[in-house]
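Deliverable D5.2: sample structural annotation.
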Amino acid sequence: MISSDPQRSASGLRLDPDIAICQSDLPLGWYQEELRPYAEEYLALQDRKPATVLAWMNRYVRPAQEHFGDSLLLLAHFYMGGEIVKLIENYGGAIADSYKLALQAARNPEKKVIVESAVHFMAESIAILAGEDQEVWITNPKAGCTMEMLAKDYMVLPVADQLIERYGDELVVVAYMNTSGRLKALAGRTGGAVCTSSNAHLVVDWARRDGKKVLFVPDQHLGRNTADRLGIDPARVLTLPDPQVTRGAFPVNEKEIEGGLDALDSAEMILWGSFCGVHTIFNTTQIDWFHEQGWEVLIHPESPLEAVRAADGVGSTDFLWNAVMNAPRGAKLAIGTEGHFVRNAREQGRQRGVEVMHLADIPGMQGAGCGCATMSRNDPPHLAGLLDLLRKGEAPDLNRVEAGDAVDEITGDRDRLAPTDRDRLVLEARTALEAMIEVTEASA
């Protein structure tokens, strides 16, 4: 249902007409040729206030909605840059965490054209579970994730192959949602599953059945926090070399593995060395400062273990959002996660008499800024332009997302699998996603 108030979304997040959108304009050269005319119009607008932006977007979004009717579904993630979350909801779209986003096509078979404003791996997860008559599109195919960029398939698969050769069926892969379909397929091939930040402990606990050794890809911090939550001895949690140094594939030998092959053999969890640049800024100094001021601290599990242990609560974006929505009047919450999310949470808290601050925003320390820069590549002209081109039947094929697609976040070059390879990947990746769903729903 589209909100009758053009400045208020279904969740209550308000597009304040007097506050400019918190999102830097992208250079014109960053837009695909087909989208450049829309970007030129947007960049020429007199300001970035919602009243101005919505009046311009309505020229393209409303006709597309009328054209596609109920078959169109607009999606965005909680972390989306600027006011895209509010804009998507203003046009009747849905906002969710990565778990719920992945289920959107499967749970809404009547939606035939799904347009996502988030990062590529999220759109690909939707496509893996989508029906043959459903199309998945992303507003900007260059929208990526720093964590996933340090865990590309060409980096991980050669190492995983060596581990599988060494341990055979004893090794099972758990692939975080922040991975490509090619790594989700690896999880499926090894009898593993996908996980999210909300269910990682459930999935890893399930994967360790019968004494299995777990390769957790890609986030070392979520993996370490999950191991800690499950009571796994830290001495039996091994982190693989930093992918920023190795740039990917490396030999699994005494020299490359910290502690050598004996440490690898005794490990119960093997962690890929990737991380989220947004969440590694959090530390105990920040938490101690807020505690001294009488604030409760909530944090995302992609943060370092020491910070997670010191916080009062830890959980996914859904957990953090609900904590704000359900907090009693007078509560004071410092939240350690992506900046755009906290900005929107602060607005919701203000309406409920709840104070919300970003965990990094304390005197004398570097603040959080606007948020995840790669998600911010999805902006109003990308959304309005793609919807208009879809209505005309002229949408760029690069924006169409199919399982197995690998897109370079800098150049925009895409590697698309042959149909037979894609069919195999869908089978394996879907097996891993469905295992996650089964484990998660069984615990509900």
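Annotation notes: Residues 1-13 have pLDDT under 50 and may be disordered. The longest helix spans residues 419-442.
The annotation will be released with the project's public dataset once the embargo ends.
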